[in-house]
Fold this sequence. Notes:
Radius of gyration: 32 Å
Number of domains: 4
Domain Response regulatory: 4-118
GO molecular function: ATP binding; DNA binding
InterPro entries: AAA+_ATPase, AAA_lid_NorR, CheY-like_superfamily, Homeodomain-like_sf, P-loop_NTPase, Sig_transdc_resp-reg_receiver, Sigma_54_int, Sigma_54_int_dom_ATP-bd_2
Shape: elongated
CATH architecture of the largest domain: 3-Layer(aba) Sandwich
CATH topology of the largest domain: Rossmann fold
Pfam family, one: Sigma54_activat
CATH class of the largest domain: Alpha Beta
Structural class: alpha/beta
Mean pLDDT: 89
Organism: Marivirga sericea
Oligomer: single chain
Largest sheet: 5 strands, parallel
Helix content: 40-55%
Strand content: 5-15%
Amino acid sequence: MNYKIFIVEDDPWYGEMLKYHLEMNPEYEITLFDNGREVLSNLYRKPDLVCIDFGLPDMNGEVLLKRLKQENVNLPVIIISGQEDIEVAVSLLKIGARDYIIKNDHTKENLWQAVINARENTILKQEVEELKDQLEEKFDFSNSIIGQSQPILKVFKTLEKAIKSNINVSVTGETGTGKELVAKAIHFNSDRKRKPLIAVNMAAIPPELVESELFGHEKGAFTGATSQKTGKFLAANGGTLFLDEIAELDLSIQTKLLRALQEREVVPIGSNKSTIFDARLITATHKDLAKEVQEGRFREDLYYRIIGLPIELPPLRERGNDILLLANNFVQDYCKTNKAGKITFSEDAKQKLYNYEYPGNVRELKAIVDLACVLCDEDKIQPKEISFNKLAKDNFISFQEKSLKEYQTDIISYFLNKYNQNVVMVAEKLSIGKSTIYNLIKAGDIKLEE
C-alpha cells in the first residue's frame, strides 16, 4: 500500500521540486496543493503525512496545523519554512508538528529523512497498538484462565462484574492459584486496558523502601536519592495498580496507603506538594486478611477501603478435571516453546496427576508437567516421568470427597511407594493382611510403580 503524502506549497516551482524529489521513492503517492483550504477539503482521502509551507496566502502554518490536528490528532505534519526563528519552531513543535525544516540548500535531504522518520514512527505506533490488541486477546479471562469446573466458573462470573466497573478488587487464594493472572485479566478487559498495569510485590521490597516505591521521592530527599523518582501510584495513572501480598505491608505504611486511597492523591518523599492520581486498585494476598485485622497486623479501616469486590480463587485440588485441562495446556506450551513434537499423557499418567493434591497449585502443576516433558523418552508421558514436590510428599491424605475404600487404597499406595513396593513391610506397618494388598493390586485398584 502506497504512503500518501500531501504537500501544501504556494510556490508552484518549489512545490513541484519537492514532489519530484519525494517521488523518487515509488512507495510515495504525492499530491500537491497551493492553499490551506484545499488541503482541508481533501482530508477525506486519508493522507498518511502532510507537509505544509508556513507562509500560505489564505492561512499561516500555525493555523493550518491546528486545523489539521483538530481533524486527526495522530496525523504527522511537517512544517517547511523560510523562517529561522527558534521560538516559532519550538511553538509549532509544541502544538504538534512532527518536524520543522528550514528552506535552504539542504531542504530536500532533510525532508527526505523527516518523511522516513515519520513513517517509521507511524509503523511503530501501529505495532504497539497491535501488541496491545494481542495482550487483550491473550488476557481475555476465558483464554488466560483455563478451566471448566464449577469453582472456576464462579470466578468467571465475578470477573465479568469486575470488568464492568472501577471498584477496587481484592483477590485471595493460596500461593500459585493465579492471583496476578486475574489482575491482568481484569485490567486488559476493562476500560483502562490502553493505560499501564503496574504490578508491585510488596513482599519483595525492603520495608525502608516501600514508601519511596509507592509514592516516589524528590532528589536529595534521603541519602542515595540522587534523582527524582516517580512512584508506582503515579506510574499507574489512568490504569491499574496491582499490589500483590498486601498483607506484608508494615503498619506505618498502611497508614500512608490509607490516606492516599482516601484522598486520591500522593505526596512524594521530600515534597510538600500533593499530586492527584487516577488508578484502579487491585490487591492480592494468600493470607486471611480478616484474621490479620483481628490479630492487629492489618488496619481495619484499610481493610474496608481495599476489600471492594472480593474474588477468592479455589485451590487446584478443588477444581477436578481442570487439572488435566491445565496439564494439556502446559504440554502444548512446552512443545511450542521448545519446538518439540506432539506429547500426550498416558491414562495412568493422567490418573496420577488427577490424584495429587498440589499444595503449590497451578504453579506446581506447571513445574511438574514441564519436567515430565523433559524426562519423556517418547511422545507419551508415563507415570514414572511424573515426580511430585518433595516438600509435600508426606501429605498423602486427600482433601477430596472419596469413599472409605478409596481412602484405604490411597493410604496403601502411599506406603507401597514409600517402602519400595514391599508388600510384607507395608502389611506390617498398617496392621493388615498381605492378601488385602494383593487383592487390590489384582483388581487394578493399586498400580505398582516401576
